[in-house]
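Batch job 17 of 40 flagged for manual review because the log was empty.
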Amino acid sequence: MIDETVVRAVNIALQTFGIIVALAMMSSFSRELLRRRSQRLLLSKIVTATACMICFVIYNLRGTGPEDPLNMVLLSLSQVGLYVVSYLYIEYLRAQIEEIDAGRSVPAAVQIIALVLCVAGSTLRVVSTVSGGFGKNSGSAFGWGAAFELGHAGGVILMGITIIILCTYYRTLGVRHTLILSSMPVLILLAAYMEPLAGGIDLYYPFVIIEFCIVYTQHHLDIARQTEKDRMDETKARLALATGRIKPHYLYNVLTTIYYLCETDPQKAQRAIGTFSEYLRGTLETMEKQELVNFSWELAEIRHYLELEKLRFGSRLSVEYDIEAEDFSVPPLSIQPLVENAVKHGIAPKEEGGTVRILSRWLSDGGAQIRIIDDGIGFDVAELRNMDVTHEGLANVRERLRLEVGGDLTITSSPGKTTTVIVTIRPSAADNGNR
């Protein structure tokens, strides 16, 4: 039989280490991460286990045995926590499955059964603790009472439910993720088998902490992979955005225009080359920009683009600027494609051409608004989804504005009428421009 002082010292060491590890995990949960229900449940599990380990450490530090009233409360809380952690884990799995595939969900009956088992099992554990049926040594083994055994059986059934969920939804979770998540029931069942042989050393919470470490590590590896994937996708998107502005036919048109200007108007050709070089420089800069830009930068790119287009269209294209708000933030090359659409799809198809107007205003709430107005051929907004290329470009711009500056993009138009594109920037983004 292991000496009682040694048992207490080992329990204190194991639980204290577990508390330190759990606190380190809790400190890494960001507000952004906690928007997901599954991560809130995971954090709740860690917090519950930490509170129970603190109770168990105090129980062992007091060293007065389970008969002491305060120790009885501390021991009861630590035992109840095991069932709460198991129940929260089942809820965590349900939330993960629903987040991965909104069309699949674990039946509500499973939640009810798990809750009943949690309440019944933890109640029986408390009864066994209060009645002295828990923690009594008889030779080298525990002398457990009937209440404890029944509560213990409830915990085993909870773990069985967890395994059933994992086996049923392994396709949704993925084989690798399922194997990682199975660490909880496997380790808890292993602790249930080994603890009677451990001579009073608590194994449940150390094993729970091991499970936390496995799930937590895998979770952060997934975050790191997703972050790297997002970074690569963003880089590809910026490259596509930049190279998309430098389409071969567009280069050909501009260079051809400059070529003829060299014969007819050398000074204008010289200015055109300067404008074109500025446009290219600004466009290529977007490959390196990872942050928002001031609208004045975006406006400069718009001016360069429209100057080059005026060389092509001549008197068929008129441009008007009415700029009041300029010092606020936007994603790079997020407004210029909207102006390009106005020229390409509004003015160019119209035989007599037309005018593109660009306005910007401060809003009363501190935000900013940009309007791109053209009096071209117009279109039916309801049929926008059938315009594959244009719709995809607008969808990308709308998503970038929403994600990066909380912006909103709306379009009003009809065949033969004026088209108006309105971009609204939220106040916090407008403030970022150091207005």
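Reviewer: the log was empty due to a logging misconfiguration, but the result itself is present. The longest strand covers residues 354-362. Unflagging and moving on to job 18.
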